[in-house]
Amino acid sequence: MPDSATLPTVEEALALGLTREEYELVCEKQGRAPNQVELAMYSLLWSEHCAYKHSRKLLRTLPTEGQYVLMGPGENAGAVDVGGGLACAFKVESHNHPSAVEPFQGAATGVGGILRDIFAIGARPIAVLDSLRFGEPSGPAGARTRYLLDGAVSGISHYGNSIGVPTVGGEVYFEDPYEQNCLVNAMALGLARSDQLVSSAAAGPGNVIVLFGASTGRDGIGGASVLASAELGAGDSDRESADMRPTVQVGDPFEEKKLLECSLELLEQGLLVSLQDLGAAGLTSSAAEMASKGEVGVDIDVTKVPLREAGMEPFEVMVSESQERMLCVVEPHNVDAVMGLCEKWEVNGAAIGKVTDSQRMRVLDGSELVGDMAVRALVDDCPLYDLHPVKPSEPIYQPPAPRLASDATPTETLLALLASPNIVSRRPLFEQYDAVVQSRTVRRPEQADAAVLALPAAEGGPVPALAVSIDGNGRRVAADPYRGTIAAVLECASNLACVGAEPLGTTNNLNFGNPEKGHIAWQLTEAVRGLGEACRVLQAPIVGGNVSLYNEGSTGPIYPTPVIGMVGRLPDAHRAGRLGFQRAGEAIALVGPFDPSLAAGELEKLHGLPLPDELEQFDLDAVRDAQLAIRDAVRAGALSSAHDIAEGGLAIALAECCLAGGLGAEVGLGEVFREHIPPPAVLFGEGPGGFLVSGQDDALLELSERVPLWVIGSVGGEALKVADPAITITLAELADAHGGLGALFS
Amino acid sequence: MKFGVLQFPGSCDEVDALGAARRVGDAELIWHGERDLRGADAIVVPGGFSYGDYLRAGAIARFSPAMESVIAFAADGGLVLGICNGFQVLCEARLLPGALLGNANLRFTSRQVDLEVVEPETPFTSACAPGELLSIPAKHSSGRYYADAPTLVAMAERGQVVLRYAAGENFNGSVEDIAGVRNEAGNVFGLMPHPEHAVDELIGGSADGLGIFQSMRLALEGARA
């Protein structure tokens, strides 16, 4: 051990992100001051990013068990039973701060990281979805927003396309509070035989630890602590971005493609005891977590790690976040076979250590011991903090700039909404993604509310399918963290219902500001309360997820943004629902316990109104019952189209159904006003529980026996026509307004 | 009959091509490091990013041991289909004229496109009608077909342009809307769009791509008869 004269000081510990009290606790756990290697490792594993120290207590309140759950939180990804002996692994993860600093690589490596989580449990990645948040694309910060959007989308496209995993869905919102702190969340799904899922727990003292994949360099040092677990400064400062850029990793999808195939072949041949990816905090967190889960110790010799550059210090090797690396535990007699497969796939493979029964994590530099820590102290003994929620007495967020006159006509309003950044067609973005590789994609973007992926069919039987959706309207959560989060979960489940799918499980990424502040703690606490309640009612347990805190810039926190990803199953892919109108002459109906309000909606945003203090109350059970009715009708093949009413309300949903189907519609809403809701909320109001469907009269009549339903018109013609208030807009005009996002890329 | 589908490190659509080929015959994967084409009657060079598209799309793959065998196989008159990255590889290997440049919009673009069958009398399109429109997905960042003017004149005279993008569908900026070409002998064919992703209405939105694989089977059976 180095003598005490060279030990790092408490100031260095603070610079690495530890608090003074945490540093003292480290000293107590070590029985002495930590050396440089140990301090670097503690600072990462005790960071918010790795230790969830402000969120872990809350996360324990979430429902994590259910009839379909095969693997819950704690592993690299969760997994649910999808029938036929198959498991679907899935998880969403954030790469927010790296993307704010360097959007292309930040987003690309975000995709790379989530894909590794999926194949680390033995599943072949079959789909990627993304959830993005930026500032407004026009106005003072518009140029930077467009740079970030373009970079992030290009990065996702580059990585996902090159590795041969389809990007099948996603969402993007543009709001001022994300201007300095954009959000880039990526979700991935994988498929495995249920009996082939692997754990990351290291086992068997004497077994060999093999690192394989890319070589290790100095990239991404401190990513988990300094970058991911602290507020960004004035994020629009180019100088600061430049300073932080070396903490962002650089991705290579070709390397990952080889790593993926190599990993799956190693597992297929039964050569591995356990497998773990290297993500945030690199070798440090992977090795420590493997040891912790297996209740064993590990010895790692840094001189055995293949390096990209000479002269790296032991602590740099241990904390490097170089991408495209995996760690596995191998029985000694299988090491040669493992190396042989690494050679076949042209990836580095190196035995860098062994499993011990010491329950200590020991770092060796050749024969010299340079770090020695109890695994338990590193992984489990990080202090967990209580939140101190305080409901804010004053608004946290400034109202947006008004962009539509308050006396605009219904026609002007509809066109303005259709062209607004949060509603305009995402085609220029998703056209950059390969959505069809792997020959599974039954519904692509803009064909249905959820992506649909075919599963293997039993001999002679129907083709079952997975459905997946990702959602999280932060604006509504900002208005009311509890109800807004329930609404986000309901939105996901409604999207699944529209294709005929039953929810199997949920993943979530909690993107929030600094939890040490009372109002952020309140947002987080209320959001998690809503998340748990909604997932319980929908029987869609949380099987994994991620927390991203400290998303703040100098102008304040982001909107609280729980991003919800939900996976469901439908028995017959041939009956997967579509969102567009299909046949002229069919009836159009508004379905569900829809009680829309303009509060916190897109129209109020266009009018520049501040957020309300809360969202309207809604009946969670009634919304779930409507989802069940819609799902059953879609599964029975009774409906030609089904679309969930979301941002911009009924009027926008009508326009979207017309555009997706290339058919007009004639609609009268008088009856709905009289019975139910006042205008203009009926046209542009938002809230959970509303669906827009089309089909034959008898099918709609049957549906009306289960759920509130108003027949409001019929499909046909070359225009969307609404009587009272009078709106007539041709399909060409609708398409023109809806197609405006491409201009950002010109 | 049997298709051999090449597999390079970085191939992405090889399993899709394998599945499409198996709808009309037998098929198996051939690892890039092997020279043995395993008795395949026709070869598919699939889409993806062989060798990470490093240097230039297809530039490294053309030197692989499997491609050496494919070049000899083509010289003997064997049927070779190159899809997307496979088309790029065949151009790099000089089995097909011209080159694929970066898309005019400078972006990876994925879009369902309509293709016009210009030459229905080929081993790759005989199951299609003249002028028939095929709806097939295209997805690439370097798909802008280019050949110089004398080459284009010669290709036109020999009927080497097999498929063109229909009006308004040429998003990548290909010269003369060319989407797919064959060699002078007519046994090697490359196209940027992905017929293997249009073999099942359920997942492709169309099954128009199947005709290309069926045509290859018909050609081989005709040759044997």
Topology (elements, then pairings):
The complex is a heterodimer of chains A (746) and B (225).
Chain A: H1 10-15, H2 20-30, H3 36-45, H4 48-51, H5 56-59, E1 69-71, E2 78-83, E3 86-94, H6 96-101, H7 103-120, E4 124-134, H8 142-163, E5 167-174, E6 183-193, E7 208-213, H9 223-227, H10 238-244, H11 253-268, E8 274-277, H12 282-294, E9 297-301, H13 314-319, E10 325-330, H14 335-344, E11 348-356, E12 360-365, E13 368-374, H15 375-379, H16 410-419, H17 427-430, E14 441-443, E15 451-454, E16 465-471, H18 474-479, H19 481-499, E17 502-511, H20 518-538, E18 542-548, E19 552-553, E20 556-557, E21 561-570, E22 587-591, H21 602-606, H22 620-635, E23 639-644, H23 649-661, E24 665-668, H24 670-675, H25 681-684, E25 691-695, H26 697-704, E26 709-715, E27 719-723, E28 727-730, H27 731-738
Parallel strand pairs in A: 4-5, 9-12, 17-18, 24-27
Antiparallel strand pairs in A: 1-2, 2-3, 3-6, 4-6, 7-10, 7-11, 8-10, 9-11, 12-13, 14-15, 15-16, 16-21, 17-21, 19-20, 22-25, 22-26, 23-25, 24-26, 27-28
Helix pairs in contact in A: 7-8, 7-11, 8-11, 11-14, 16-27, 19-20, 19-22
Chain B: E1 2-7, H1 14-22, E2 26-31, E3 42-45, H2 65-75, E4 79-83, H3 85-92, E5 99-101, E6 109-117, E7 133-140, E8 144-146, H4 149-158, E9 161-165, E10 178-182, E11 188-191, H5 201-204, H6 210-224
Parallel strand pairs in B: 1-2, 1-3, 3-4, 4-11
Antiparallel strand pairs in B: 5-8, 6-7, 6-9, 9-10, 10-11
